[in-house]
């Protein structure tokens, strides 16, 4: 099976959902595989006029592509059931495979996360779930199919968090767990689901600059955001890599981001998915930093060395008039969009480049300086 992996180049919000949707459109029978992160993803897709922000399903769902949450992902039952209902209301027919080994986020993890989020957080319990798992207080998706096991482990997790956790309501969580295991739209797997897939599309969550190993600790996510998990699941490095960046930098929440003190001409997008919220804080924007992009590429071994890699530059329509980036600490002004794209691709060493200036997959096109 062909393998294609979608990786964010920055601090997230690059357009991974758009690119995943676009790739699915050229496949006969794709399976979208989430290989990092979990319910904290927010991937926006607009398909045939229908807009959806994917967190618990793959971004090919509006096209009918099934999704698989691999063992590297967390699962949050309440959010998953809520999103399932929203998708059904939009006319979609989702099919989600979930690996039995996926850690399950409980209301206790979410409550702990919302009490303590000093480094930037979505407030949905992803990091606290993995911290708890490391302490051997484990609850996985396969456990949900055994009611006594589920309730016993949930009680032990409550004790793990301490007396304050006794006040946390878990009834909605238990109802959603029951709904999940009884839903025709959700299926348990132990490894890659069978289905005669033509293409495996690995959809990343968060960007390379949030990787737990080479991001800017402690402002990182607790997962491998590069190609490592996709390679482990695919069983080889035979993957086409799609590295995605906006035409400018973004960061949602705390943590360092370059170029914030420089003037920019980036428009505020009225349809922006990520807005200020209680836990993450402000959605920040600044000029694209080529040195930082080069650093991100250099830290992922397969991305750095692959001959099957493609650059995708999104949100070109969000920049007014002149396109700019920084290189070696100075602002570089470009004569045109073609000049902007060519300079970035040349610096990063990409010969295959795609661009997008819209929200729908039809806006993605191959880059050609001639037009």
Keywords:
2 domains, 10-stranded mixed beta sheet, 3-stranded mixed beta sheet, 371 residues, alpha/beta, Adenylosuccinate Synthetase, Chain A, domain 1
How would you classify the helix and strand content by structural class?
A: alpha/beta
Instruction: Give the biggest beta sheet.
Output: 10 strands, mixed
Kindly give the count of domains. 2
Order of helices and strands: EHEEEEHEHHHHEEHEEEEHHEEEHEE
State which percent range the strand residues make up: 15-25%
CATH architecture of the largest domain: 3-Layer(aba) Sandwich
Mean pLDDT: 93
Question: What is the compact description of this entry?
Answer:
With 371 residues, this protein is α/β, with parallel strands linked by helices.
Verbal overview:
The protein folds into two domains: 2-95 and 191-366, Adenylosuccinate Synthetase, subunit A, domain 1 (Adenylosuccinate Synthetase, Chain A, domain 1, 3-Layer(aba) Sandwich); 107-186, no CATH class. Helix 2 (77-89) crosses helix 6 (171-182) and helix 3 (107-115) packs across helix 4 (126-134). The radius of gyration is 20 Å and the shape is globular. The protein is built from ten helices and 17 strands. A ten-stranded mixed sheet has the order 7-6-5-2-8-1-9-13-16-17, covered by helices on one side. It has helices at 16-24, 77-89, 107-115, 126-134, 147-161, 171-182, 228-234, 290-299, 301-305, 337-348; strands spanning 2-8, 30-34, 43-47, 50-54, 67-69, 96-99, 186-189, 199-207, 240-246, 249-252, 283-286, 288-289, 309-314, 324-327, 330-333, 353-356, 364-366. It is of the alpha/beta class.
């Amino acid at each position: 099976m062909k393998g294609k992996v979608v990786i964010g180049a920055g601090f997230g919000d690059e357009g991974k959902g758009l690119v995943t949707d676009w790739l699915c459109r050229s496949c006969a029978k794709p399976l979208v595989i989430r290989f990092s992160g979990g319910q904290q993803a927010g991937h926006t897709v607009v398909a045939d006029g229908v807009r959806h922000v994917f967190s618990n399903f793959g971004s090919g769902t509006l096209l009918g592509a099934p999704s698989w949450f691999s063992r590297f992902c967390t699962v949050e039952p309440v959010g998953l059931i809520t999103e399932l209902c929203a998708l059904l209301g939009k006319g979609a027919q989702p099919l989600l495979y979930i690996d039995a080994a996926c850690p399950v986020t409980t209301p206790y993890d979410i409550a702990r996360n919302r009490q303590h989020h000093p480094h930037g957080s979505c407030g949905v319990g992803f990091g606290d779930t993995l911290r708890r798992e490391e302490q051997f207080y484990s609850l996985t998706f396969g456990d949900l199919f055994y009611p006594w096991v589920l309730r016993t482990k949930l009680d032990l997790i409550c004790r793990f968090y301490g007396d304050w956790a006794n006040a946390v309501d878990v009834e909605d969580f238990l109802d959603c767990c029951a709904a999940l295991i009884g839903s025709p739209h959700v299926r348990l797997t132990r490894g890659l689901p069978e289905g005669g897939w033509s293409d495996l599309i690995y959809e990343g969550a968060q960007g390379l600059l949030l990787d737990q190993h080479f991001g800017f600790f402690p402002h990182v996510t607790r997962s491998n955001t590069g190609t490592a998990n996709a390679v482990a699941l695919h069983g080889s490095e035979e993957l086409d890599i799609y590295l995605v960046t906006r035409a400018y930098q973004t960061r949602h929440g705390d943590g360092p981001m370059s170029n914030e003190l420089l003037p920019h001409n980036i428009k505020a997008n009225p349809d922006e998915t990520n807005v200020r919220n209680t836990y993450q804080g402000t959605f920040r924007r600044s000029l694209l930093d080529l040195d930082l992009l080069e650093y991100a590429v250099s830290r992922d071994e397969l991305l750095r060395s692959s001959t099957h890699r493609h650059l995708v530059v999104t949100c070109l329509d969000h920049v007014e008039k002149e396109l700019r980036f920084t290189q070696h600490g100075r602002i570089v002004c470009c004569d045109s969009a073609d000049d902007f794209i060519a300079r970035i691709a040349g610096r990063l060493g990409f010969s295959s480049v795609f661009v997008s200036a819209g929200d729908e997959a039809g806006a993605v096109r191959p880059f050609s300086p001639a037009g």
